[in-house]
């Protein structure tokens, strides 16, 4: 199973796919993928900085559509954020990226999806992220077990 999106850009149809082989387009090839929790804490920090700089916030008129969309985006991140502090989110990413025998093999997209889904089994993870089929089941399961322990003690 894969997710396939076609978009028309300058008269050319570009296919973006996150399946067995990840093809997200040239502009996203080397991009850093963030987890929902990382985005949540980033937005929280920016919101706090905006609130503390009241004069600047008053001088720049906010678009109603932009403000509405940003509020929806913040609500989504709040709903699916699983952590109460940003240090746990940093630890989670570090654990995935540096996991022995697996961390260097994972792509940015896969790292973000592993952190977002936090599945119980490697089989479930591979159904949700088909590109992980190239990864050893035992190593992936060991990583998921470590992540579960980290999140259990962080809660």
Order of helical and strand elements: EEEHHHHHHH
Quick one: biggest sheet? Answer: 3 strands, antiparallel
Number of strands: 3
The averaged pLDDT comes out at 80
What characteristic shape results from the CA principal axes? globular
- Helicity range of the residues? 55-70%
The structural class is: mainly alpha
Sequence stretches where pLDDT stays below 50 over 5 or more residues: 1-9, 12-16
Rounded to an integer in angstroms, the radius of gyration calculated over CA atoms is: 18 Å
**Count of runs of 4 or more consecutive helical residues:** 7
Could you tell me the strand content as a percent range?
A: 5-15%
| Distance between the amino and carboxyl termini | 33 Å
Strand order across the biggest sheet?
A: 1-2-3
Map the helices and strands.
Blueprint: E1 3-9, E2 12-18, E3 22-23, H1 36-52, H2 54-59, H3 64-80, H4 86-97, H5 108-117, H6 122-128, H7 137-154
Antiparallel strand pairs: 1-2, 2-3
What can you see in these coordinates?
The protein has seven helices and three strands, in the order βββααααααα. It is globular. Helix content is 56%, strand content 10%. The protein is mostly helical and 155 residues long. Strand 1 (3-9) and strand 2 form a beta hairpin. Residues 1-9 and 12-16 have low confidence and may be disordered. The protein has a three-stranded antiparallel beta sheet with strand order 1-2-3, with no helix packed on it.
């Amino acid at each position: 199973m894969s997710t396939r999106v076609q978009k028309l850009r300058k008269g050319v149809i570009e296919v973006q796919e996150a399946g067995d082989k990840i093809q997200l387009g040239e502009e996203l090839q080397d991009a850093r993928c963030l987890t929902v929790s990382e985005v949540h804490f980033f937005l929280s920090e920016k919101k706090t900085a905006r609130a503390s700089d009241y004069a600047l916030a008053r001088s720049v008129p906010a678009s109603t559509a932009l403000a509405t969309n940003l509020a929806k985006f913040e609500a989504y991140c709040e709903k699916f954020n699983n952590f109460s502090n940003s240090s746990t989110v940093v630890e989670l990413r570090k654990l995935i990226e540096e996991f022995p025998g697996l961390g260097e093999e994972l792509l940015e997209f896969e790292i973000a999806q592993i952190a977002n889904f936090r599945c119980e089994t490697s089989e479930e993870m591979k159904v949700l992220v088909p590109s992980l089929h190239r990864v050893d089941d035992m190593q992936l399961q060991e990583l998921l077990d470590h992540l579960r322990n980290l999140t259990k003690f962080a809660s």
